[in-house]
Structure formats: structure tokens, C-alpha cells
Prior knowledge:
Distance between the termini of chain B: 58 Å
Helix content of chain A: 10-25%
Number of helices of chain B: 5
Radius of gyration of chain B: 16 Å
Helix content of chain B: 25-40%
Number of strands of chain A: 31
Structural class of chain B: alpha+beta
Oligomer: heterodimer
Radius of gyration of chain A: 27 Å
Strand content of chain A: 15-25%
Shape of chain A: globular
Strand order of the largest sheet of chain A: 3-7-1-14-11-12-13
Amino acid sequence: MTPSTATSSTDTTVRARPGGGRIGDSPVRPDGIVKAQGGFAFSSDLPIAGAAWGATLRSPHPYARIVSIDTSAAWAIAGVATIITAADVPGRATYGLIAADQPVFASDVVRYVGEPIAAVAADHPETCRRALAAIDVTYEVLDPLIDPETAIDGSHPPIHPDGNVLRAQRIVRGDVDATGDVVVEATYEIGMQDQAFLGLEAAVAVPDDDGRGVELHVATQWLHEDRKQIAACLALPEESIRIVLGGVGGAFGAREDISLQVHTCLLALRLGRPVRMAYSRAESFLGHVHRHPATIWMRHHATSEGVIVKIEARFVLDGGAYASTSSAVLLNAITHTQGPYRCANAIVDGWAVRSNHLPCGAMRGFGVVQACFAHEGQMDRLAEACGLDPVEIRLRNAMSTGDVLITGQVMESVAPVARCITETAALPMPTTPIGEAPGGPGVIDPLLLPGGAGLTADVGHVVRGVGWGVAMKNLMYSEGFDDYSTARCQLADGIATIKFATSEVGQGFVTIAQQIARTVLGVDVVVQEPIDTQIGSAGSTSASRQTWMSGGAVDAACRAVRERLFEHVGARHQIDPLRLVIDGTDVVDPLGDLRVPVAEATAGQHFDETLEYHHRPTEELDENGQGNCHTAFAFVAHRAVVDVDPELGLVKVVQVATAQDVGRALNPLSVRGQIEGGISQGLGLAVMEEIIQIDGRIRNASFTDYLLPTFLDMPDVELTLIEEPDPQAPLGAKGVGEPPCISVTPAIAAAIRDALRTFDAGDGGRRRDITRVPVRPSDIALA
Amino acid sequence: MSEHYRLHVNGSSHDVADGWIGESLLYVLRERLGLLGAKGACEQGECGSCSVLVDGDLVCSCLVLAASAVDRPILTIEGLAEPGAPTDVQRAFVDAGGVQCGFCTPGLVMAAHALLDRNPEPTVTEIREQLSGNICRCTGYGRLIAAVQEVAVARGAPRA
């Protein structure tokens, strides 16, 4: 009873052109054509005979006590197959990535609008909808915790048995009494952003015949972590649960936590037949974690030459109702207080707290997005106070390899911060006037003015501004977590077969993995086995880690197989295997005249190796925030050019230029795709995207009301890759997924400030500031 | 409340039996006819992932009642080309790096074909405007614009 199309999503074997598709090339995605033709099976595309539809009943209140749940009317509806509540969870009643503090179903208290209370299975989605409406839940509404400060000062009673503070962490470094000639401070706010992947949450659970196991096809970022949490809730051994990666329509952090996995399995096991669940867009906004809204105060002390002396900061991250990864997001935020700049003295207080808002967790950039918006605002303030331009202040403070971070950790990664800045500055500026298309006919096109098709802005009122943002981002997991990856490589008859549990979420790891195998083994054909839990963990597709970690694992497994191959060839030809190398598609002895095609050398042979790749160990922070907590770092600079209508508060982002430290571009086209896509999401946070909650209720849970960048919102991107291979990285390549979306947001905000400064210079000393993102029209026009 | 009607999809006639009259064209294509290429991502006509042609018009199939499309020719991504024999637009999307997660891709392919049929030599601004009903969350659109431009140039090139 396996979904018939379930394996087609990973059945993507393609033959590279002979000798092509190696590391450094840009071969096309192996799944590209099937995706472009609509044949790729996403987790929503797994119809299966006899499957029931599942759906979830959710809380309408941000905080309430459940007095009673009456399902009798729902049971009476024709077509309803089963209804389950907390009482039907056989194992652990809660789950969570770091702390298991979130109920599978709320039974006594609901803590956010959208919290699951029950699930139904029925013959049609419409039957499910009517059944959910027929479940009668009586609530005693409680006073919600809305203001995170009341969680910190203790004035709101605990809303969870684990308390209202998810993590409090301090960093104290150097001379905390140090002061500078120049002191600037401000408070910055970052709104709640949604990952807004297009492929909605969807899964199919197929119970094993005896009901003591289940196969789950699901779009997820981390198969083995899902399996661990599901097993605990189902009270089944992990081996009884097989997870197969359903095609993933984007992730960006939102698929790291459990959403519908446990519910789908519970319904299927209860019914003894397959169950499909699929969220609507409105439900998706409730059903996954979001980027933490944050309030960050920073005070920078510097010499009159603009050299940073000390940074003081206080971070408050609203984690929402449950812990998810809040403690790790906070760690990232506070340890990136300094950004990519040297700083000897620091005192930082960080708080991640619980509230009756939507739970927050992972989103691309993971805490560093919030920190970067604040530290880059501060760099511009310092520049102005010191009479320097934004590029000069950043170059004067730019970090290098060997510098000591505010955690005491030595920067051991390649750290080309100054190069990122100078190479970004060297990229061309837009040359066409406001409102005109590059290379166009030289006339104003209203579509290219702020406000676009609304035809609101008049070109005479529009001002252009330029702004900068530079970021440091940690790669891989931190604080002692060994987030290893596993890969298997087989080689027979000139064909390599690779297997791993690495979630392909769209980023293109399946392409990179084949490039690695072709390069190491000298083959053209690489078969990719299904991505499932029939091999060890690959860790999560997050934290910019899979090229480094799973790339390292694939590389290691292929190299182990290559050793066996060389031993075999060496024995056959009486040559020391250590003399042999791969050249193109041949095994070659460079010191002699042996040259054997890999296909010939492996005829009738079968080499098979499985290896794990582990990065170097890290440490937890101590009570003063000191410790080697991070694995490695990458850097990036962004320069944004925007056109602003200061009276209407409208913004058009015209161009973003960027130079990114990538270590080594294994697939330059893929890297470009990550950079342009990341810039789009960072632009969204800068000027468009925010989940609005009023009194704990989400007000814009749709794509009509939650605005995403379209073709018309996306600017031209000028980019350059900084390739300084990192000796720590197995292939010299750093992760490239997160940096693009981090410093582009402050760069756009800074460009808006710059335009307003220009405009207001002629306005009798009016002085507008921008200290929150997304920047709303009212933040500009009414400031 | 069940209905019986026929839909003309990709050149063939399909029976829809026992459907609920409230079902969208997207739901019927996917769940009743097994044509899974059109994707549901917003259910409000904002993202274009479910784009198909009805009577030659590009529509969001999530906003069209299936029963209202009776007797009108419907073209879905599956009807554009045989598996393994992609159209020039499909090939260009892949070659230019315009496909990442791929969830928006079928809808965008439909929209790009409709655009190029209407306007064989679009400017960049015209590409942006006429594809702005299709949201892509992965690519930032740059490679998609490049792909459409490449197809326009290739189609306009004098044939050898």
C-alpha cells in the first residue's frame, strides 16, 4: 500500500555529459525537468487508494482553559471515520525539538490561536470541515500574555508549567566600564516573518498491516528528528516508523518542527488505513513556527575615529507559546551582537520568553537576521557621529581570521569581511534615472515607481537612497550539538549509487551530491536512492549546513569507495594503490603508463561504503556567555539602492549588490539561486512581510493579506562570489543559504533612511528615523 | 448534492461522477482526474501555482468552479508536452536555474507560455508585470526572467 508516485520524487537519475557535471560546474538539477513538467511528486501529490482525509480542530483563543470537549455531534456526521483527542495519544503527550513542551493535542489549556485540540478523519475534506465545526469545546477564557516584558519581570503568572522564560543568557567580555568618545544608541524592532514556502504542509501515513508500525511520507527538513519525536508520542520503537521524504515545496525553517506528522500517524493507526492530511494556507500560518519578533536595544561606544570600543545590548525575543528552538535562536542572536566587526568589550543581556502568540522557531537566518538589523543600524549611527561614510566605518572595524569574538571564541574561519565590502562597493550602481527601465526607451514607467501599478507616486517627489548592510553568520549547529551526517556510496560497473537522508527542500543538494560523486569517482552516471530513514541521520537541512555536512559525508563515502577501487586496480596491476588517481573517467598512474576506465575497472565488482561526517566539537556558553559555541562562520555584504516617496511612504527597491564569502562555489548557478532567493526574502522582511497579531489573534493568515515579493518587487541583483576555500570545510565550500537574506534587510532600511535624509535636508531640520522592519508606509510618512 | 458532468482536459473528455458541486477546478483536476501538476498554495488566486488555461485564458484553477468549466477546453501542464519532451519554456526554466523547490514551476510555465504567445518580444518590465501573478519563494525571480528572455530570443532567431 505504498503510494504509487512516492518514489518518483527522488527517481532523478540523469547522465551527465561525459566528463561533465563535476564540482565547479553548474549541471542542471536532476529533478529539474520533472518539476517543470508537473510530474514531481510533492507531499501533497501522493493519492493513495482508500485513504481517508484528516483535519485538525484548533483553538480560537490565545489563552483559555478547556472545560469540556463534546465530539458526539461530529461522530454522527455521515462519512466521519474517527475523531481523536489528547486521550488517544498512546505515548508522550508532548513534543518539541529542544524541550518537549508542546502538547500533541491540548487537553487542559490552550496557549495560542491555532493550537490543535482534536483531529478527525473522514471521506472528503468537506466532511472534515463540517465535523470540526460540530465539535463543541467549552472554554474558560484567560488573560493572555501579550507583552514579553511581563514574562521577564514576572508580572504575568506562568502560562506554562515550565515558566515564562525560555532562556536568559548573558555575555560579558572585557572591560565593562570602558567608554568611547562617541556613543550611539537606539532600540530596534523586527516583526514576525513567515517562511511562506509554497508547498503547504501535507503528509500521507500508511499503517503497517499489524498496526504496530507506520510509514509516513512527509515534507520535512530532518527525517530522523521527526521519527524520534513521532516514536515517543506513538509509544512505538523508532525502527517501527519509516519516514520517506515527500517532495518538499520549500522549507526555510518552517519544516524543522513537528506540524501534522504525529496527527497523521495517529489517525492512520487508529483507522488501520492510510490517512492524508494537507493544510490550507490559513492553517499553515497557524501550523508552523515563525521568525521571532524581537526588540533589541544597542549602545555602541567608539573612538572618534570610529573604532568600536564596547557594545552594550539587550535582546528580547518573543518565542510564542512553546519552546521550539527559541533557546538556540537566542544564542545566535546575542553571539552575533557585534556583527562582522572587532569588539573587545561587551555586555549583552538576552531573553527569549513565552507568550500567547504563535510559536516561533527556525527561519532562514535564525536569530542573526534580528541581530544584524540592530548592529547595522548602529554602524550607520556611528558613521554619522564620526563623520565617516558607511563603507569606511565598516572597513575600519572589519573582522579578520584570528580575531577574538565577544564569546572569547577565536575566529578560525576564513573571514574576508573587508573583501566582501570593497568588492560590493566595486559593483556597478544603477545608471538609469528614477522610474526608468534599465536599457529602456528613456521614459518613465509608472510600474517602476514606488507604489507601482497603484499609480500613486509622482516622480518629482521620489528620492533615491543608498544603504549598506554587512553580516556574519554561523554555520552548522552550536553549543555542543554533534549534528553529523551519514552517506552511503556504492560503485559497480561504472555506476555510482548514493544514499543519504538529507532533505532536499529545493536548495539543490541532490545536484551537489551527484557532482561530488562524479568528481571523486570518475563516473558520469550517479543513481540517487530514495531519501528516507533506511540509513543514518543526515541532520537537518538548516543552518546553511548540508553542503558542508552531507557534502562532507558523500565526499567521505565516495573517497572510501575510491580507496577500495584503487586497492583492486593496484592488486590487479601490481601497483601501489597510493600511486593511483582519478583523471576524468579513468583510473590513472601518473608515474607510469596505466590508464583504465573506471567502468572497466569496476566491471563485475561491487564496492560499498557508509560513512559519517562530524564537524569539530563545540561548547556551551558559560554564565558569562563565554565559550567556543559555534562551528564556523560565513560573511556577506549588501548594498541597496531604493527609491522612496517620502510623503506617501512608498518604497521601490531598485538594485541590490552583494559580495558573498562562499568558500568555494561547488555549483555557481545554484549559489546564484540561493543569493537571489535570499535577497527576495530579506526584501520581504524589509518592506512587506509581517504577521500581524492583535490581542493574540492573527489578522492576516492569507497570501492576500500577508504580502510576499512578486516579480515586480524584486530588484536587479549585482553579485560577486568571494572564493577563498575554507580549510575546515570538507570541500572548501561554506554554506550559502542564509547569508543572502540577513544583511540585505538592514541595507534596504538604511537606503530608506538615506533617501529620507536627502529629502528632509530641505525641510527645516525634520529628521525621520527608521528603527523597525518591515518598514510600513506610516513609518515613513508619519515619522 | 453530487453531480455528474464532463470536462474536456488536454484534448480528452473526462467523466466527473459523484463530485460535490462546490469543488474547485483545481480540486477536481487533482483529486478526481489525477492531474497533479497544478498545485494549490494559496486558494485565493494570489500565487498562480494552480494556473491552467480555460478557453485559452490563463486562470487560477482554485478560483474556478469545476462545474463552470464544463464544455470548455482546459489545458493543464500535463497537456503541454509529453514527459521527457519538455517545451522550450520548460527546458529554459531548468537550464537557467529557474527551478528550485519547483512548487510554483508548473503554474509559472503555464503563465510564461501564455505571456510569450501574447507578446513574443516582452521587455523585462513586461515580463515582470505579466508574471507578477505567480509567486516564487525560492529563486528571487532573476533566473526566471532570464529563462523567458532566452526563449523569446531563441523563438525570434532566424531558423537555420
